[in-house]
Structure prediction request, 353 residues.
Amino acid sequence: MREPGALIEPLGLLDGQGAIDALRAGLALPLGDGRAYTLARLIHPAAATRIVAATALPEPWRPLAARLAAPPPPWLDRVGPPAVMGILNVTPDSFSDGGRHLTAAAAIDAGLAMLDAGAAILDVGGESTRPGAAIVSVGEEQARIVPVVTALARAGATVSVDTRNAATMRAALDAGAAIINDVTALRHDPDAAGVVASAGCRVILMHMRGTPATMDREAVYGDIAVEVVDELAVAIAAAQAAGIARARIAVDPGFGFAKVGAQNQALLRRLDLFANLGCPLVIGLSRKRFIGAAGGASDPTRRLPGSLAAGLATILRGASVLRVHDVAETVQALRVWRSIDPGPGADHGARHE
Prediction:
C-alpha cells in the first residue's frame, strides 16, 4: 500500500517498440500496461512537487515505482483489457436512454444484443444517478432489475449491477450478478461492504462526492487528479478493511460525478496517476455532458463520435474497461485501433488471457 498522499505521476511516456528500446537502454521504467516512462513527477503533501528522471528515483519512492510496474490483477475471467461494458438502464429517467428499456422484456432483448455485439460485461441499473434524479425505493429498484439480471445471467452474460443499496446488491447477486458497481464506493449503505465481502464478488468503486442531488456543488478541487486518486485510495483501504480482497476491486474516476465542465478533461489527461492504486481502471464517459460540450452535441444520443474519441484516449492512458451505451460501435473502434497499433492495451491483455 502506498504512503497516503505520495504519488508518482509518470511522464515522458512511451509505448510499443519505443518503450522496449528505452527499457533495454536503461532510460525508462515500466508501467504495468506495457508502456514505459522516462520522467516522474513526485507528489507528496509534505514536500514540493518535483520532476526527476524515472531511472533516478530516490530510494523512498522505489516501492511505489514497483506498484506502477505491476500489471493490475486479472479482474475479468478470460477477458483481457480493454473490455467493453454495456450500459443497460432499466429506468424511466436516465440522462441518455431513460425509458428505452423500462420493461423487463425490452431490457433483456437489449442486453442480449449487447452481448452479441461483443460486450464483456452488462451493467444493469434500476435507479438513475444523474444530477437531480428522483430517489427510487429499494423495492422498485429490485422489481426493475432482478428479472433482467436473472435472464441475462442464465444466458451466460457476466452481469454487473449498478446500485448503491445493500439489499439490492444481495438480491442481484442471488439472481446471478457477478459484479457490484457502486457510484458511492460502498459509502451510501453501511451494509454494502459486508454484502460484497460475504459474496466474494468483484466490485467497482467509483469516485463521487456528495449525492446525485448535491454532487455538482462538491466539485471544488485544488488538484483534481491527485484528490480523486487519494479519495479512491481511502475507499480501497476501507473496502479491504471490510474483508474485500484487493484483487476483486476495480476503480472508476467518476467522470461527471462531482466533476463539472473542463474538470473532466483535466482528469482525463492525467489518468496515468491511477496506476498508483494498483487496480483495474473502469471508465464511464459515454455520452456525458462534457463530451457534448467539447464536440458541439447538445443531444446525448448524438455524442457517439466524441465518446469513441475520448474512450480511445483513456485506453492509451491505462483504462481496462470502457462502460458505454454504444457497444457495437465501441467494439469495432477497439478492433480497428488494435489492428493499427496493438499498443499497451493489447499487450497487457495478452498477459492475462
In short: Residues 7-69 form one domain. Residues 95 and 112 are 22 Å apart (CA to CA). The mean pLDDT is 90.
